[in-house]
Amino acid sequence: MNDAGRILEEMNDRSREVFRRVVESYLATGDPVGSRTLTRDMSEKVSAATIRNVMQDLEYLGLLDSPHVSAGRVPTQEGLRMFVDGLLEIGDLQNDDRRTIDATLGSNSQDVAAALDRVGSALSGVTHGASLVLAPKHEAPIKHIEFVGLGHDRALVVLVFADGHVENRIFNPPPGQTPSSMREAANFLNALIEGKTLSDLQTVIAKQINERRREIDQLAHAMVESGLAVWDGESESYERLIVRGRANLLGSETEEAELERIRILFDDLERKRDIAEFLELTDEGEGVRIFIGSENKLFSLSGSSLVVSPYMNADRKIIGAVGVIGPTRLNYGRIVPIVNYTAQLVGKLIADRS
């Protein structure tokens, strides 16, 4: 049993009820909860003084906090974590939410990227938070590779897949590249790629480079390795990150400091900083996981929570994730089934159209 479970077990019924009602009221309103408010809702008749004593004990345990003198209590991050782990009641997926999400996948289009974009917008709409969809890499066989110089320190690798998909990735080539070395590098790769995916190529090409090092011009050899690094880097584990609903995190009464924290969060997201960790965070199980505040370093500065679930392909391999970002006082009981259902639907979409 973890610490949260042990503390809950050791609480008496009154303390557990006071704690649960404070958290539920805070999640619903965002306001601190006072003892007089709780006296009207408790299942047994107790005085405000008795409730104040219980709240002081819960504050001593680090589960509640007083934002202002005599202004009631709010749950701490530790308190929210304990509530989510031990007392949260997950509701059923509402029919309206189900229909909205289903409608995004109703098209017969084979464009998975467009479908994932619609899923992100729908998820943001029904949860009133910001949504994220981590899309999988494109794993069709490659038909053609080409390198294009964009300047002395930038180059473009163009990947044409057998299914017609085209992907462009910018990278920093080694200095001294010439149009001739770029063509030689592309010719070397194109001679090996037939019928192979990017994953297949990484192992084959590494072996070929070692065996045929003398056959390739030194510049072309460096170009191949630099181009490969684009495919193999951690930040390119997934094709792209789709984020929708940024405005949902910016309430009309948002203070300047809160605006700055949210701006930092989205700057980090757009730079894909730590995004590769999402699947590492979710691959311990198939279900929804909840990260509150600083439990995920990506969200520690913004004070946000992340509700995220992985999705799988037909081989039951985790290939991406969908999630909702919002304030720590999210309606977790409603959002968890929405994220779970969306992840299952996206997994089915990928399996059906791959």
Automatic annotation (TrEMBL):
Keywords: Repressor, Stress response, Transcription, Transcription regulation. Residues 115-336 form the Heat-inducible transcription repressor HrcA C-terminal domain. Signal peptide: none annotated. Transmembrane segments: none annotated. InterPro entries: GAF-like_dom_sf (IPR029016), HrcA (IPR002571), HrcA_C (IPR021153), WH-like_DNA-bd_sf (IPR036388), WH_DNA-bd_sf (IPR036390), WHTH_transcript_rep_HrcA_IDD (IPR023120). SUPFAM superfamilies: GAF domain-like, Winged helix' DNA-binding domain. The keyword Transcription applies. The keyword Transcription applies. GO terms for molecular function: DNA binding. One of its GO terms (biological process) is negative regulation of DNA-templated transcription. Negative regulator of class I heat shock genes (grpE-dnaK-dnaJ and groELS operons). Prevents heat-shock induction of these operons. Belongs to the HrcA family. This is Heat-inducible transcription repressor HrcA. It comes from Roseovarius litorisediminis. The lineage of its organism: Bacteria, Pseudomonadati, Pseudomonadota, Alphaproteobacteria, Rhodobacterales.
